[in-house]
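Structural biology now treats backbone shape like a language. To illustrate, our science desk offers a sequence and the tokens encoding its fold:
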Amino acid sequence: MQNIYYQPEGYAFGDCMPFYKDGKFYLYHQRDTRNPGPFGEPFGWALAVTEDFVHYEDKGEVLLRGEDTEQDQFIFAGSVFEGEGQYHAFYTGYNRDFAAEGKDAQVLMHATSDDLLHWTKSADKLKLPPQMGYDPNDWRDPYVLWNEDSKEYILILGAHKQDNRQIKTGCTVYFTSNDLEHWEFKGDFWAPNMFCMHEMPDLFCIGDWWYLLTTEYSENNKTIYRKSRSIFGPWQMPDDDAFDGRAYYAARSCGDSEHRYLFGWVASKDQDMDINNWIWGGTLVVHELVQKENGDLKVKMPDSVHNAFVEKISNDLFEEKVIKIDSGINEVIIEECDEETFLFETVVSFKSGTHAFGINIFEEKETGDAYRFEIEIKNRKVDFNRTPNLPWFRYMAQGSERPLFLEAEKEYLLQVVVDGTVVTLYLNNTALNVRAYEPKGKNISLYVKDGSVNIKNPRLYLLKN
């Protein structure tokens, strides 16, 4: 059960279409019943409203799916936009039976609203079918914005060229319009030939930089971005082009007047077992975007999420301690916690030449059985796994890692949020979300391998009552 992160009871949280208005974030999203598995039962768009990413008001399904014989048997992803005196939802109408009948399986469709709660579909008045040369079964996830320079609306979406779906011709394509009703197809917006498909594209500006997001259909399967000084590119690849690991998927951004946030879901695992693969849909986790001086994007925990916790006063915690060993591993148990939801944070630094350090959670005192995040300094990465890994393997960890660039003698804030089975690491504005389904113990510990790490001000926080 989640207490901080959002997952409606009885459902997996799917793709999110965030919209901000008057101090509230309207999170349109898909809800999957898992009956019998992902996409088993058709769905529309449900709505949850929040001001702080902690407390959510469930409005239920507000954009209803069509009948089984209609184009929008499923309402796949899209976006919500305010323009021309109304709220507009551009969405993907998907019918899983149409491909076998020789019809377009996915078509862009439209609805309007005056209050963000009640929606009227435009039906046949406004549809954007797959264009010539593009796969009619991969044409989805429209995102709309206003281009102030050209005084027109831009609609981008994910697509795939009309050939073998394994071939890497995934692309982002676009339309333009002056009135949100009449659209002209312009062709490829970004076609790098790197992925089989682009999903959930997003386009926004912070300061002098434009950012193009997409979720890649590839062996990595995660949300990535590119940056440019122009809305039309060329698009530069940063040193770290992702926001999270394999488990964090289909992230879209949305901002208020001061901050911009990412809304993605942490995938669940098949049959809720550590050893199994990730499956579509899960739990909403929100990151706050952080822009570096060079225009690169990083993430942090939203302040409102941190403020939902209160420090647990413990006599066992210390102010500062050095953990060191010349060869091998040295570990210090920090605290015991049997809460379902908690936040642990500490300030860490390490000596030059240190090989690795890490944090164990849910550690069993007698056996050392734990889940661990390990920071491999020389390999410049952080990864997650189960330890000891016997019998091998106990955790399907592919993609549960992130590049991480740390400097010796410099202090970094390390934070771990546990909420039910979702575990989130933040370190140096780098995030890694994972799942932990089968914990054995209660201890939190820190360790070092072949080196020295300094631990300062460890703190355990529990949910406020």
The chain has a mean pLDDT of 96. The helical segments are 303-306.
